[in-house]
From TrEMBL, chain A:
PROSITE patterns for this protein: ABC_TM1
Record membrane topology: Multi-pass membrane protein
Transmembrane spans: 31-53, 74-99, 111-130, 175-195, 207-227
Source organism phylogeny: Bacteria, Bacillati, Actinomycetota, Actinomycetes, Micrococcales
Species whose genome carries this gene: Sanguibacter antarcticus
One cellular component (GO) term of this entry: plasma membrane
Protein name in UniProt: Osmoprotectant transport system permease protein
UniProtKB/TrEMBL annotation, chain B:
Membrane-spanning segments: 34-56, 62-86, 93-113, 153-173, 194-214
Keywords carried by this UniProt record: Membrane, Transmembrane, Transmembrane helix, Transport
InterPro entries: ABC_transp_perm/SBD, MetI-like, MetI-like_sf
Location relative to the cell: Cell membrane; Membrane
Protein name as it appears in the record: Osmoprotectant transport system permease protein
Family from the record: Belongs to the binding-protein-dependent transport system permease family.
Length: 247, 224
């Protein structure tokens, strides 16, 4: 209980919030790293997933979660393999490997590692989103004389948007949750408070840091969820249940 | 930075493995036993939880929501908040791992239970099965393949997640990675990483084999 009190005291001390290593600047750094990592992952994964999905044209492909694991050969199988391997590879391993190579200490290896772990989430959702577009709709568009490119841009992409957005959202939250590990290899972000607290055995600070990291994650999740809801037309909103299955 | 007379620092080194076998095995053992415990506990908690949520649909939002929020909280933060209370490294990591594995198993179990063929359910009801008998003898066995998928996912990610336990000094193979990082010794990091991957694979394999054993009827269907 003593630790809880000192955690409260730590959070209540304005000096811990301001300044170059205060909560605000660490949170800013945390978010900046998140943005870079998600952007990097999106740049690679989104076009790849969309093109793989467009090329698959798999008739009668099944629904979300289970589909990705039991999907047919080719493109589907590739995304499955990528997703599974990335699940088995510890982020921390990648972090230490990057930090030990020429990439140096600190934020850069973390951003890279986080981006690599965000990749399969975005890829799998973009792929599933495109593949799951109703085959009849696709055929109708083709029958109306649309070229493959226009089918992709005008029909498949808009219809796949809810799943793509879900993927981006899950990936972002995952990255926010991964960035704290940066502190273990000398990087910044809110994880610093926790790791520093452990180093100095000030468990009040550890609790405060953990609390702040958790709050930031839930905050980002909430904001993104609200934003996604705002920009999705009502008819296209993925229900909560479907979203859970697809992430 | 690298001078010509610096000692070689390869990523893979068999002599490192040979010289440090006892230590590597100790961490591997730690990693294996704790991950296995976490998955088993998560399974024992998650299946009844999902069954409850399935039986009383009003609970399912609460159960999925709570486990979902827990899943959103970063492992580092969770370990950080739990450790000062428990003051035991092993238990803290175990609690964290169980909480993360819970969501995967609960979600898959629920999907499986909901996916049971309505005709099958109706047939059982027609035979006079009560709610609990229906759940235990018809729905749960039917949901088993989905449960097993959840356990496979959970076991693989648990093995990977445990390395984060390094923040409180109980990360199994993560401990080796961290020491390798701290001293810049590549072979140590790489050995631990490969062992971690292999361990995850082994878990996946064991769970799917057990899954095959407990669902003999699934084998008669054509392999998808």
């Amino acid at each position: 209980m003593n630790d809880l009190r000192s955690a409260f005291l730590w959070l209540n001390d304005p000096l811990n919030w301001t300044g170059p290593s205060g909560v605000f600047s660490l949170a800013g750094e945390h978010l900046a790293m998140t943005v870079v990592a998600v952007l990097l992952a999106t740049l690679v994964a989104l076009p790849l997933g969309v093109l793989l999905g467009h090329g698959a044209h798999a008739p009668g492909t099944t629904h979300s979660g289970r589909a990705r694991r039991s999907a047919g050969p080719g493109a589907g199988a590739t995304t499955v393999v990528i997703a599974n391997v990335s699940r088995a590879l510890p982020t921390f391993a990648l972090l230490t490997i990057f930090a030990t190579t020429g990439l140096g200490f600190g934020n850069r290896p973390t951003v890279l590692a986080a981006a690599i772990f965000a990749l399969p989430v975005i890829l799998a959702n973009a792929y599933a989103g495109i593949v799951e577009v109703d085959a009849d709709v696709r055929d109708a568009a083709r029958g109306m004389g649309l070229s493959g490119r226009r089918v992709l841009l005008g029909v498949e992409l808009p219809l796949a948007m809810p799943l793509i957005a879900t993927g981006l959202r899950s990936a972002t939250v995952q990255v926010v949750a991964t960035i704290p590990l940066a502190a273990l290899v000398g990087g910044g972000g809110l994880g610093r408070i926790v790791v520093e607290g452990f180093g100095t055995q000030r468990y009040g600070q550890v609790i405060a840091g953990g609390f702040l990291v958790a709050v930031l994650c839930l905050l980002v999740e909430g904001v993104l969820a609200a934003g996604q809801r705002l920009v999705t037309p009502p008819q296209m909103r993925v229900t909560a249940a479907a979203r859970r299955e697809s992430t | 930075m690298v001078t010509s007379d610096a000692p070689a620092n390869p990523w893979l080194s068999w002599s490192y493995v040979q010289d440090n076998a006892p230590e590597i095995l100790r961490y591997l053992g730690q990693h294996t036993s704790l991950s296995a415990q976490a998955v088993v506990i998560a399974l024992l908690v998650a299946v009844p939880l999902a069954a409850l949520a399935h039986t009383w649909p009003r609970l399912s939002g609460l159960v999925l929501g709570t486990t979902g929020v827990l899943y959103t909280i970063p492992s580092l933060a969770l370990f950080a908040v739990v450790y000062p209370f428990l003051r035991d490294r092993r238990t803290t990591v175990l609690v964290g791992l169980v909480l993360y594995a819970l969501l995967l198993v609960v979600r898959n179990t629920l999907v499986g239970l909901r996916g049971v063929d309505p005709d099958v359910r109706d047939a059982a009801r027609g035979l006079g099965y009560g709610r609990w008998r229906l759940l235990l003898t018809v729905e749960l066995p039917n949901a088993l393949p989905s449960v097993i998928t959840g356990v496979r996912l959970a076991s693989v990610s648990t093995v990977a997640l445990m390395t984060v336990g390094v923040v409180i000094g109980y990360g199994g193979l993560g401990q080796l990675m961290f020491r390798g990082f701290a001293s810049g010794y590549r072979a140590q990091i790489m050995t631990a990483t490969i062992l971690c991957l292999l361990l995850g694979l082994a878990f996946d394999l064991v769970v799917s084999l057990v899954g095959r054993l407990v669902t003999p009827w699934a084998r008669t269907k054509a392999a998808r």
